[in-house]
Amino acid sequence: MLEKELLEALKIVKVASKLTSKIQSEITSNEILTKKDASPVTISDLASQYLILNHLNSQFPNDAFIAEEDTSEETIKFLEDVLNLVNQYSEKDTTIEHLAEIINLGASKGAVNGINKRHWVLDPIDGTKGFIRGDQFAICLSLLNEKGQVILGVLGCPNLSLNKYYDSELHGKHRFNYAQLDSECGTDGYIFYSKAEEDFVSFASDNKIDLSKLITLEGFEKTHSSHDLQDLIKQKFNINNALHLDSQVKYCLLALNLGNLYLRLPTSLEFREKIWDHAAGNSLLKSLNYNHTDSLDDLDVDFYTGGRFFLTKGVIASNLSKELHAQVVAYSKDLILKKFEGKK
Which one, of 122, 153, 152, lies nearest residue 47 by Cα? Predict the structure, then answer.
């Protein structure tokens, strides 16, 4: 099942990865805008979204789309720059009108009580600030079924060098030789993919974790999660090692056991997580039977009821035992409620 969907998703994410990788080293301030929510958007964000949605819409015309970007805040000059970029990677030239029409296909709101048709979910560049800094970012595409369940995920990580995150003292002998993998992959990074539970594999033999060598995976930007609370969790569980990096690349490192505990605790109880920030990573974790829960309750993350959002107060993911993961979540809940008590 889903062979065609996976094939087409991989094909177009690879194209978008090449585009974004090339532009990352060349981008100028004129090719970056700041949106009303203070987040940046680049011509590469919109170009990536256009290429992916245009391809998927042609292959699966009955599906709907939820994607991060739209054209409501962009100037004509900005869109012209996007157009020039996408025409270099398209089989035939398009127009600004068609460009905007396809980008805005991602405006579906799903449904309040469930999604009644398949939805492709896209973050065309997850970690735009990292992209601008020349650091980590990811192209994150996933597919939800009619019930809002993640059934497929593809993550393009054009700037990822795995050997950078491998530490022989912490990881010991590992199933992969990352230096060799990096040299084989060159400068093209990696593409991770799974068909969620259909591809379930157990890595139990690699998952015997020495508590003194646990590694947390956390965001680089301090505005995206409560780093102060995450530090308290590390103190509680005697965790001395942390990686801070942008985007869903963190889920990829977790899937490879290069990190053990992904912490994204909320900055307020009003904040709602956007599904494009987690759905593709969720597919990887489901395929490995790893933990992916709310940071307040030990409940699996649910993309069913929130439309463009999902109803969670932060996220905790891990390749720990179910019991240890539950202990982390219980302590996280205590910290969150104490911090935000009376601030709802």
Answer: 122
Spatial contact of 2 and 198, defined as CB atoms under 8 Å apart: yes
Looking at the structure, tell me whether residues 304 and 256 fall in a common domain: yes
Long-range pairs for 24-32: beta carbons < 8 A, 24 or more residues apart: 24/131, 24/134, 24/137, 24/158, 24/159, 25/134, 27/131, 27/132, 30/81, 31/78, 31/81, 32/132
Enumerate the β-bridge partners of residue 41. 33
214-266 pLDDT, tens per residue?
Answer: 999 999 988 788 999 999 999 999 999 999 999 999 999 999 999 999 999 99
Q: The pTM is what?
A: 0.93
Residues 227, 151, single domain; the answer is: no
Percent with pLDDT over 90 in the chain: 66
Tally of structural domains, the chain: 2
The dihedral through the CA atoms of 22, 28, 34, 39 has a sign that is positive
Catalytic residue at 302? no
Task: List the structure tokens of 254.
Answer: 């977790």
Please say if 297 is a catalytic residue: no
Query: Is 302 annotated to bind ligand?
Result: no
Residue 163: domain span: 3-202
Mapped onto helix, strand or coil, the DSSP state of residue 44 is helix
- The dihedrals phi and psi of 215, each to the nearest 5 degrees, come to -125, 125
**Which has the closest alpha carbon to 115: 144, 87, 93, 135?**
144
Which one is catalytic: 20, 42, 71, 128?
128
Of the residues 45, 81, 182, 298, which is catalytic? 45
Say if 49 falls within a structural domain: yes
More confident residue, 221 or 315: 315
What residue has token string 């992209």?
A: 131
| Distances 60 to 93, 119, 123, 143 between C-alpha atoms, Å | 21, 10, 18, 12
- pLDDT at position 305 over 90: no
Q: Is 277 annotated as a binding residue?
A: yes
